[in-house]
Amino acid sequence: MGEMEELRKEMENLKDQITAARKTFQDSTLQEAAAGVTVVGRVQLKTRKTLRGHLAKIYAMHWGTDSTLCVSASQDGKLIVWDTITTNKVNAIPLKSSWVMTCAYAPSGNLVACGGLDNMCSIYNLKGKDGNVKVMRELAAHTGYLSCCRFLSDTEIITSSGDCTCVLWDIETGTQKTVFAGHQGDAMSLGVSPDFKYFISGACDFTAKLWDIREAECRQTFGGHESDINAIGFFPNGNAVITGSDDATCKLYDLRADQELLTYQDSSIMCGVTSLAPSKSGRLLLAGHDDFNVNIWDMLKAERVGVLAGHDNRVSCIGVSSDGMACCTGSWDSFLKIWN
Amino acid sequence: MTINTMAKGGWHRDQMSCFRKMEKVIVAMQDPDMGMKMRNQRLLITIIPHAMTGRDIIDWLMKKSNICEEESLHISGLLVRYGYIYPLKEPRSLVLRPDESPYRFQTPYFWTSTRWPASELDYAIYLAKKNIRKQGELMEYEKERYSVLHKRINHTWDFVVMQAREQLRASKQRRKADRIVLECQEQAYWLINRPPPGARNVLDMGLERPNNTARVTLNSEHYKNEIDTCKRALGRNRVKSSICLEGFMKYSEQYQNHDPIMQGCLPSNPWISDDSAHWTMNLETVPTPTRLRVERWSFSFMELLNDEMGRREFMTYLEKEFSGENLAFWQACEDIKHGESSKIVEKVEEIYRNFLAPGAPRWVNIDSKTMDKTLSGIRHPHRFVMEDAQMHIYFLIKKDSYPRYLKSDLYKNMLAKGIVPQETKKSVFPFMRRQRHSSPSPAQVATQATEEGGNAKGAGQAGTNSAAGSNV
């Protein structure tokens, strides 16, 4: 039998016990719980602006905190900061490596970051003294591609990578402060909690993990998906995690109940989820898919209430502005669209 | 999936799930009892059996899955795009037309999932067949590819030509209708697996992710760690799911009026009216904030603290009560946590001098245990050295001063003075009777009145729960 086999059995046994323990706290069905909630009718959003300028697939976008500026990254090797009202390009930053997979806007609005197959996270200062946008730091230590990055402040950033780890960096010194290891597959995306104390990561091992930034440990792990988790985000009150996966479903995991509470799926949705964003009140969930559409879900009733069809290729990224006014989608068709 | 992995079996793992789903639908469509009714289709002088029209496909899907036409069009479009159904007329245009255009099911032999990845050799044989069958039948791009392949796999070229000839000979022995069908099927397969330049490549998986060598090794240490984690997880406190769900509902309800996608936004949606009044009214610092904004301060302590104006108002209130140093201390600690590493030492010293030292000008009241811990921590300052003290003060303010502030005249006046913008009227043609909203609500909440002009909706009223009948 061997020691290893016994250890593995003990681990499986404990995991079963955890599943059973979680079940005892499932004391209501969604139908019962959401019975009294007002019904949301059909949600119809229209394209208000189309941002043209990228010459190749757009892989990522992120809103700034002021609700009118956003940054997008494309395979044409450019990072563009857009004024979404006028559709003007505020900055068009040429990148050293065109294989970019992610981008992020700092809450202060001073910095943007991007990274990809170069395994590095490059930080750019938008408010440099002479007006030129230059690379401020190159954070290199990952042994795999950079899949996602999010700023905590102008001095700290968290990255997720194909080397299965997430890292918290000190931007000033360009060094790793904490390495969060534990995933058994490429870490594909991450999200920071509203109070900046925790972050969540989704990976190709089909699980999502909640990490305590300060204590540098994994607090909770959530499974249930049948394929890679491509997108992840917090419910606006910070008490739940929403994940989107290649298995074409989204799931809501509650942190306090320590389990999955809702699954958003429909037999007519066959293509994987690439990106997701909740609306400001958390009532609606917008999910971008491989089949060129965005599906809008009523999060409390787990029903589909709308579809955004306007892209000619995969929707690769989506975001809702911080005041909840508008939703931006980016696609492989090289356009970004603003909807509301 | 936005990024491809070429790890062994990676493609199968990533793409197969959507193919399997499509294949289920296709199999159901071909069910002898419940499936689609097919008919013979005349193509020039030949009759092709088992064909169906685009309209048939859409109607069948609508009935079977109880979906609307738009959705059905989308799904059937997917089935054509991925090659499970192919058009008989205009084979190069892989779209589903909701009319009398004829379509056929692709044979499973030629499903993309069956023959993946499409091999170069097979493509060469296919092009060779086309070339032999009728000189000059190859399209321009096919000719180019043919010559590229000829160079690349020159060593097997004899085999390629031999196979092509053999397949052509075998097909000549078939009935004409069968031969045409087979040619159509093969052509459809290659249109998807080797699309013409300019056509969308549906099998494009994006960036090739390098094979991951940094995997976790499943050794005894790994299992021991997992066991520890499981033991800790087993003992954690959990909350009943009903309570959690209720929490989400309360939150959504509370924020519904503050969610422009749910409820629209006053005075107008800047994206529609090109009027940035909404943002001007909600800047960080304005002389008078909007009522919605002031209302949010009462939702949670964090909402108040995250709004700079809210914090200032709260500070004014605290100074009146001579407890302003608490908020100032909290802010200074936040500054250390999120600020530059190089300034940590000097900031910690400043906090000590101002807030913690005996006789400090703005001394904060922390319990002795926390104070001792903090003072000893200060000797080796780091980003989180003030965390415990900060938490203590945070909870103090939250439990005590914050609720009192919400009941205070200062807050109530702020709320009463708060601006409730009037909806901007969109300019209309003189003969249009009904005005268009410049701030429509994209979500039509069932209890609200249908849109009639003016301020019927959105003026900060809560969406009332209709009596139980809102949901069957």
UniProtKB/TrEMBL annotation, chain A:
<feature type="coiled-coil region">
    <location>
        <begin position="1"/>
        <end position="31"/>
    </location>
</feature>
<comment type="similarity">
    <text>Belongs to the WD repeat G protein beta family.</text>
</comment>
<feature type="repeat" description="WD">
    <location>
        <begin position="180"/>
        <end position="221"/>
    </location>
</feature>
<keyword id="KW-0175">Coiled coil</keyword>
<feature type="repeat" description="WD">
    <location>
        <begin position="139"/>
        <end position="179"/>
    </location>
</feature>
<dbReference type="InterPro" id="IPR001680">
    <property type="entry name" value="WD40_rpt"/>
</dbReference>
<dbReference type="InterPro" id="IPR019775">
    <property type="entry name" value="WD40_repeat_CS"/>
</dbReference>
<feature type="repeat" description="WD">
    <location>
        <begin position="51"/>
        <end position="92"/>
    </location>
</feature>
<dbReference type="InterPro" id="IPR015943">
    <property type="entry name" value="WD40/YVTN_repeat-like_dom_sf"/>
</dbReference>
<dbReference type="Pfam" id="PF25391">
    <property type="entry name" value="WD40_Gbeta"/>
</dbReference>
<dbReference type="InterPro" id="IPR001632">
    <property type="entry name" value="WD40_G-protein_beta-like"/>
</dbReference>
<feature type="repeat" description="WD">
    <location>
        <begin position="222"/>
        <end position="263"/>
    </location>
</feature>
<protein>
    <recommendedName>
        <fullName>Guanine nucleotide-binding protein G(I)/G(S)/G(T) subunit beta-3-like</fullName>
    </recommendedName>
</protein>
<keyword id="KW-0807">Transducer</keyword>
<dbReference type="GO" id="GO:0007165">
    <property type="term" value="P:signal transduction"/>
</dbReference>
<keyword id="KW-0853">WD repeat</keyword>
<dbReference type="InterPro" id="IPR020472">
    <property type="entry name" value="WD40_PAC1"/>
</dbReference>
<dbReference type="InterPro" id="IPR016346">
    <property type="entry name" value="G-protein_beta_1-5"/>
</dbReference>
<dbReference type="InterPro" id="IPR036322">
    <property type="entry name" value="WD40_repeat_dom_sf"/>
</dbReference>
<keyword id="KW-0677">Repeat</keyword>
<feature type="repeat" description="WD">
    <location>
        <begin position="273"/>
        <end position="307"/>
    </location>
</feature>
<feature type="repeat" description="WD">
    <location>
        <begin position="308"/>
        <end position="340"/>
    </location>
</feature>
TrEMBL record, chain B:
<dbReference type="InterPro" id="IPR044926">
    <property type="entry name" value="RGS_subdomain_2"/>
</dbReference>
<dbReference type="InterPro" id="IPR015898">
    <property type="entry name" value="G-protein_gamma-like_dom"/>
</dbReference>
<dbReference type="InterPro" id="IPR036284">
    <property type="entry name" value="GGL_sf"/>
</dbReference>
<dbReference type="InterPro" id="IPR047017">
    <property type="entry name" value="RGS6/7/9/11_DHEX_sf"/>
</dbReference>
<dbReference type="GO" id="GO:0009968">
    <property type="term" value="P:negative regulation of signal transduction"/>
</dbReference>
<feature type="compositionally biased region" description="Polar residues">
    <location>
        <begin position="462"/>
        <end position="472"/>
    </location>
</feature>
<dbReference type="Pfam" id="PF18148">
    <property type="entry name" value="RGS_DHEX"/>
</dbReference>
<dbReference type="InterPro" id="IPR036388">
    <property type="entry name" value="WH-like_DNA-bd_sf"/>
</dbReference>
<feature type="domain" description="DEP">
    <location>
        <begin position="32"/>
        <end position="107"/>
    </location>
</feature>
<dbReference type="Pfam" id="PF00610">
    <property type="entry name" value="DEP"/>
</dbReference>
<dbReference type="GO" id="GO:0007186">
    <property type="term" value="P:G protein-coupled receptor signaling pathway"/>
</dbReference>
<dbReference type="InterPro" id="IPR016137">
    <property type="entry name" value="RGS"/>
</dbReference>
<protein>
    <recommendedName>
        <fullName>Regulator of G-protein signaling 11</fullName>
    </recommendedName>
</protein>
<dbReference type="GO" id="GO:0043005">
    <property type="term" value="C:neuron projection"/>
</dbReference>
<dbReference type="InterPro" id="IPR036305">
    <property type="entry name" value="RGS_sf"/>
</dbReference>
<dbReference type="GO" id="GO:0008277">
    <property type="term" value="P:regulation of G protein-coupled receptor signaling pathway"/>
</dbReference>
<dbReference type="GO" id="GO:0005737">
    <property type="term" value="C:cytoplasm"/>
</dbReference>
<dbReference type="InterPro" id="IPR036390">
    <property type="entry name" value="WH_DNA-bd_sf"/>
</dbReference>
<keyword id="KW-0734">Signal transduction inhibitor</keyword>
<dbReference type="InterPro" id="IPR047016">
    <property type="entry name" value="RGS6/7/9/11"/>
</dbReference>
<dbReference type="Pfam" id="PF00631">
    <property type="entry name" value="G-gamma"/>
</dbReference>
<dbReference type="Pfam" id="PF00615">
    <property type="entry name" value="RGS"/>
</dbReference>
